[in-house]
Design brief:
Shape: globular
Number of strands: 5
Number of helices: 6
Helix content: 40-55%
Order of helices and strands: EHEHEEEHHHH
Structural class: alpha+beta
Length: 138
C-alpha cells in the first residue's frame, strides 16, 4: 500500500465490529500507539505498532488502541509478519491490501488479545481472519 490509512475513516464500522465481540470496549485512535503506551507505562517496543489491547486499571474495561494514521511503513511491517503465517492464503492477503480490510483485521487481532491473553500473535491473527470470514462480520 503506497498511501497512509486514516483509521477514523472507518471508525463507526470498527466500533460496531468491536462491540460484536467485546461489549463495553473502548476504541481509541491515537497519533502513536508506542508513545501512548510509553506515557501510560504500558510496554510496547515497535515504533511501527499499529494497535494494542489494554485493560483500564480504573474501570476494568478493555481499551483497544489503533493508530490514527497507518503509514505505508507500518502497513509493510505488519504485512511482512503476516506473510510468514501459514494461514495467510491469497484471499486473506487480498483482504489486507484494502484499507478497510486491513484495519478490521487489526482491530480483531487486538480484540483477540483482550478476549484471551494466552493467545500468541499467530493465534490472534488466525482468530481475526476467522471472524472476518463469518457472515456477521460483513
Amino acid at each position: 500500500m503506497n498511501t497512509s490509512i486514516c483509521t477514523s475513516d472507518f471508525l463507526e464500522d470498527l466500533r460496531a465490529l468491536a462491540q460484536q465481540h467485546l461489549p463495553n470496549v473502548e476504541l481509541v485512535l491515537v497519533p502513536s500507539v508506542k508513545a501512548w503506551c510509553e506515557a501510560t507505562q504500558a510496554a510496547v517496543q515497535s515504533p511501527f505498532k499499529c494497535g494494542a489491547a489494554l485493560r483500564n486499571r480504573e474501570t476494568g474495561r478493555f481499551v483497544v488502541l489503533l493508530a490514527e494514521e497507518i503509514t505505508p511503513d507500518m502497513h509493510a511491517s505488519r504485512m511482512a509478519v503476516l506473510r510468514m503465517r501459514p494461514s495467510l492464503n491469497d484471499d486473506r492477503r487480498k483482504q489486507l491490501e484494502v484499507p478497510q480490510g486491513f484495519v478490521r483485521h487489526l482491530l480483531l487481532h487486538e480484540v483477540a488479545h483482550a478476549l484471551d491473553s494466552t493467545r500468541n500473535e499467530e493465534q490472534c491473527d488466525d482468530w481475526a481472519f476467522q471472524q472476518l470470514e463469518r457472515p456477521h462480520a460483513a
